[in-house]
């Protein structure tokens, strides 16, 4: 899979800009605030169908403009996303439009046309952050490669919002209509079980895959959803005003193996070990996507060299060359002259 070109209009700090990329490795160099991470965000948006940095996509629209456009050329496909601010064309809410070769698509059919693996400084949060960071890690992968997962995930999210709204109303009024809950309970159970099974399979892959960078065990701490569990938490949910069981409460645990002893790397691992765990997860992500889709994903390395020591930088550089890679950095020196000679270089200025 070869990402040829990116065109941006009114996206973040870019009014109108076009970038072209080499088949192997492209290095994006520039000082902070020149838009390096914004460029990576735009590319990943075409793979994920959304931003990895913010929840409200209309915030991506350049200040003072009504819409933003991201367009990417990938071999024989042209992927495009248009993001409009709230109130544009009489709409009360912001909206997105997805197109493949100029034809409008639903998000579920847009995602999956292009695959990317992102490695950014805040990925350490997958280890040290809250459970939602680890769920995002899994979701970003499975939403790209598995259409059934995308459908189940989309239906589940909508159902969860509706059921939580009902619970909030019950908490406020003290009145509960079981018939209103029946439909959403069944939807969450069916879709939630699909999500759980596919996450379980992915965790099993991570558990059994060969680990060359850091050896660890991984465990799926799943929150099963069923009629019995919803009944068990019925009163507690009214008190909380939200749904308390289901895959939106999932987590996974990484235990470092050291001299036949295991310990939770989140609490007892060093910073270096935690970074190695992230490197290992990203490498396994690359392999998983390639095995699942039959194609090589693009690797996006967003300004990670400033966060890593020389040993870790060399481990990252060993990952490039096997697939198309786009790297952002503040200084060319992080890469080294030998590798630099084989890279296409794009320089951004203030």
Distance between the termini: 31 Å
- Arithmetic mean pLDDT: 92
- What is the CATH architecture descriptor of the largest domain? 3-Layer(aba) Sandwich
Query: CATH H-level name of the largest domain... which superfamily?
Result: P-loop containing nucleotide triphosphate hydrolases
Count of separate DSSP helical elements: 12
Main sheet strand line-up:
2-1-4-5-6-7
SSE pattern: EEEHEEEEHEHHHHEHHEEHHEHEHE
Radius of gyration: 22 Å
Would you give an account of this structure?
With 350 residues, the protein is an alpha/beta fold. It is 42% helix and 23% strand. The chain folds into two domains: 1-115 and 295-350, 3-Layer(aba) Sandwich (Rossmann fold); 130-293, RecF/RecN/SMC, N-terminal domain (Glutathione S-transferase Yfyf (Class Pi), Chain A, domain 2). It has helices at 36-48, 107-110, 125-128, 131-145, 147-173, 178-208, 227-232, 234-240, 265-268, 271-293, 310-317, 337-340; strands at residues 3-11, 14-20, 25-29, 67-74, 77-84, 95-100, 103-105, 116-119, 216-221, 251-258, 261-264, 298-302, 325-329, 344-347. The strands form three sheets. Strands 2-1-4-5-6-7 form a six-stranded antiparallel sheet. The chain is globular, with a radius of gyration of 22 Å.
Note the topology.
Layout: E1 3-11, E2 14-20, E3 25-29, H1 36-48, E4 67-74, E5 77-84, E6 95-100, E7 103-105, H2 107-110, E8 116-119, H3 125-128, H4 131-145, H5 147-173, H6 178-208, E9 216-221, H7 227-232, H8 234-240, E10 251-258, E11 261-264, H9 265-268, H10 271-293, E12 298-302, H11 310-317, E13 325-329, H12 337-340, E14 344-347
Parallel strand pairs: 3-13, 3-14, 8-12, 12-13
Antiparallel strand pairs: 1-2, 1-4, 4-5, 5-6, 6-7, 9-10, 10-11
